[in-house]
Design goal:
Organism (chain A): Brevibacillus invocatus
Keywords (chain A): Membrane, Transmembrane, Transmembrane helix, Transport
Largest interface: A-B, 25 and 32 residues
CATH architecture of chain A: Orthogonal Bundle
Largest sheet of chain B: 6 strands, mixed
GO cellular component, one term (chain A): plasma membrane
Mean pLDDT of chain B: 89
Low-confidence stretches of chain B: 251-263
CATH superfamily of chain A: MetI-like
Order of helices and strands of chain A: HHHHHHHH
Oligomer: heterodimer
CATH architecture of one domain in chain B: 3-Layer(aba) Sandwich
Number of helices of chain B: 13
CATH topology of chain A: MetI-like fold
Largest sheet of chain A: none
Strand order of the largest sheet of chain B: 6-7-8-3-9-10
Family (chain A): Belongs to the binding-protein-dependent transport system permease family.
Pfam family, one (chain A): BPD_transp_1
Number of domains of chain A: 1
Number of helices of chain A: 8
Shape of chain A: elongated
CATH class of chain A: Mainly Alpha
Number of strands of chain B: 10
CATH superfamily of one domain in chain B: P-loop containing nucleotide triphosphate hydrolases
Distance between the termini of chain A: 57 Å
Shape of chain B: globular
Distance between the termini of chain B: 34 Å
Strand content of chain A: under 5%
Radius of gyration of chain B: 19 Å
CATH class of one domain in chain B: Alpha Beta
Chain lengths: 216, 263
C-alpha cells in the first residue's frame, strides 16, 4: 500500500497525462461514432431492404476480437493514436446504430399515423415525433458505447496509442504491480465517471412528458 | 361536399373497395359502419389520402383531391384515431396547437383557440394546458384528441373509431358530449365505427358497408324501419329491430332513439 502511494506521488504527472490521453482518445472515437451512427441508424429505418445487411455488417465488426482489430490497423494506418481512435470508432458504432434504429422503429405506429394524418411531412415527423420519442434509447446507446470504448481504449497502448493501457501492459511486462493497479483503477474510475455523466445526459435529453408515469 | 365516384381499391389480387359511389353532405355526421374488413376505414382514409385508391375520383367541394398536395389537404382535414395518439412528449396545449402551428397561424390567435376548445370539452385550460398526456385519464385524453382535430377549424373531420378504446362509461359520456358539440360546431364529420348503438345515437346518416360496397345508406330511422336486406337485418340485430317496432308502431321520432340505444 505504501509502495503504491509512493508510486503515485512520484509518477502522478505520467498518470495524469495518460488519463488525459485515454479520455480524449475515447471521446473522439465515441463522438465520431455518434455523428455517423445516429444519421445512419435513421437512414436504415427508411430503407427496408438494406437495413438487415448493414446491421449484420456492423455486428460482424463487433465480433472481431478487439486486439485483432487493433492489430489489423497497423498495416492500414501504422501505429499511434490515429489507428487506435479509428478502431475504437468502429467498435462504438454498433451500440449507437442499433439503439437509434430500434428506438425509432419502436415509436408507436399510431403516433406516426396521427402525425401523418394531421399533415406533418416525413421530415417534421422525424424531427418532432420520432427523434424526441427515441432520444432516450439513442442516448442509452451513446452511454453503452462510451463505457465500452473507455474499457477497450486500454488496448490502444498495444499499438502505441497511449492511454492508461500503457500502465497496464508495462506493469504486466515489468511485473510492476503498482503500475498495473494504477492503470486498472484509473480506467475503472474513468468509466464510472463517464457512466454517471452520460446517465445525466440521457436524463436531460428525455422529454419531460415521457418521464411521467401513467396516472391511471 | 365529399363525393366518391367509382372509387376502387385493390391490393394485389384482393379487391378492398369495389366501385364506390358516395355523396357526403356539408355539415352532416356521416357514419361508416360494417363488419371488420368491409372497407370502412379504407374509405375514410382515402379522403385525406392516407390511402390512395386504385381507380376512381374523389372530390371535395368539386375539386379533385388527387390534384392537391396531400400534406396541405391533411392540414385542412381534422383527424382523430382510435388509439387517441396524443404525442406524449408534448403538453396538452402543444398537442392541440400542432396543426395551427403547422399552418403558421399567429401564436396569439391559436393560443386563444386552444383555451376555447379546452373549455368547450370541460377541461380547464389553467389546469390542463401544461399537463402531459400521461397525466390525463383515457376519457380526458380522447377529448383532447377530438379538439386537436378542430384546432385549425377544418371544415371536415375524420374520426376512426374514436371512442372504442374507452371504458363504457367514458364512451357514453363522450358520445353525448360529441352529439352536443356537433350541433354547435357544424362540421362535416366522417365517423367510422363497428358499433351499431353508437352509430344510431350520433349519425345523421349511416352507411352500412360489406365486402367493399355500400349495402344501405340511410338515416338511422329508415335503416331501422326498412332494412334493405337480410344482411342489414342481421347486422342491426333482431333485438334492436323488435324494440323499434314496439316503440314506434307507425312512425318514428329520432328524439326517442337514445332510450334503446343502451342495450
Amino acid at each position: 500500500m505504501n509502495d503504491w502511494i509512493l508510486f503515485l506521488t512520484e509518477r502522478y504527472d505520467l498518470v495524469l497525462s495518460l488519463l488525459w490521453e485515454h479520455s480524449y482518445i475515447s471521446f473522439i472515437a465515441v463522438m465520431a461514432g455518434f455523428l455517423i451512427a445516429v444519421p445512419l441508424g435513421i437512414l436504415l429505418t427508411r430503407t427496408e431492404k438494406i437495413n438487415k445487411y448493414v446491421i449484420g455488417f456492423v455486428n460482424i465488426l463487433q465480433t472481431i476480437p478487439s486486439l485483432a482489430l487493433l492489430g489489423l490497423m497497423i498495416p492500414l494506418l501504422g501505429i499511434g493514436a490515429v489507428p487506435a481512435v479509428v478502431a475504437l470508432f468502429l467498435y462504438s458504432l454498433l451500440p449507437m446504430l442499433r439503439n437509434t434504429f430500434t428506438g425509432i422503429r419502436e415509436v408507436d405506429p399510431a403516433l406516426i399515423e396521427a402525425a401523418r394524418g394531421m399533415g406533418m411531412t416525413s421530415f417534421q415527423i422525424l424531427l418532432k415525433i420520432e427523434l424526441p420519442m427515441a432520444i432516450s434509447i439513442i442516448m442509452g446507446g451513446f452511454r453503452t458505447a462510451t463505457i465500452y470504448t473507455i474499457s477497450w481504449a486500454t488496448l490502444a497502448a498495444v499499438i502505441g496509442g497511449g492511454g492508461l493501457g500503457y500502465l497496464v501492459f508495462t506493469g504486466l511486462g515489468l511485473a510492476n504491480d503498482n503500475m498495473l493497479i494504477t492503470g486498472a483503477l484509473a480506467t475503472a474510475m474513468l468509466a464510472t465517471i463517464a457512466d454517471l455523466l452520460t446517465r445525466k445526459v440521457q436524463k436531460l435529453c428525455t422529454p419531460k412528458g415521457l418521464k411521467i408515469k401513467r396516472a391511471d | 361536399m365529399i363525393s366518391f365516384q367509382q372509387v376502387e381499391k385493390r391490393i394485389g389480387d384482393a379487391s378492398i373497395i369495389k366501385g364506390l359511389n358516395l355523396e357526403i353532405h356539408a355539415g352532416e355526421l356521416f357514419v361508416l359502419i360494417g363488419p371488420s374488413g368491409c372497407g370502412k376505414t379504407t374509405t375514410m382514409k382515402m379522403i385525406n389520402r392516407l390511402i390512395e385508391p386504385t381507380a376512381g375520383r374523389i372530390e371535395i367541394n368539386g375539386e379533385d383531391i388527387f390534384k392537391t398536395d396531400p400534406v396541405e389537404l391533411r392540414r385542412s382535414i381534422g383527424y382523430v384515431i382510435q388509439q387517441i395518439a396524443l404525442f406524449p412528449h408534448m403538453t396538452i396545449g402543444e398537442n392541440v396547437a400542432l396543426v395551427p402551428k403547422l399552418k403558421k397561424m399567429e401564436r396569439s390567435q391559436y393560443e386563444k383557440k386552444v383555451d376555447e376548445l379546452l373549455d368547450m370539452v370541460g377541461l380547464d385550460p389553467k389546469v390542463f394546458k401544461n399537463r402531459y398526456p400521461a397525466e390525463l385519464s383515457g376519457g380526458q385524453q380522447q377529448r383532447v384528441g377530438v379538439i386537436r382535430a378542430m384546432a385549425a377549424d377544418p371544415p371536415i373531420i375524420l374520426m376512426d373509431e374514436p371512442f372504442s378504446a374507452l371504458d363504457p362509461i367514458s364512451r357514453e359520456q363522450l358520445q353525448d358530449e360529441f352529439v352536443r358539440l356537433q350541433k354547435t360546431i357544424n362540421k362535416t364529420i366522417v365517423f367510422v365505427t363497428h358499433d351499431m348503438d353508437e352509430a344510431i345515437k350520433i349519425a345523421d346518416r349511416i352507411c352500412l358497408m360489406n365486402d367493399g360496397t355500400v349495402v344501405q345508406l340511410d338515416t338511422p330511422d329508415v335503416l331501422l324501419q326498412n332494412p334493405a336486406n337480410e344482411f342489414v337485418v342481421n347486422f342491426i340485430g333482431a333485438k334492436r329491430l323488435r324494440k323499434v317496432k314496439e316503440l314506434h308502431p307507425a312512425t318514428s321520432k329520432k328524439a326517442a332513439l337514445p332510450k334503446w340505444s343502451i342495450s
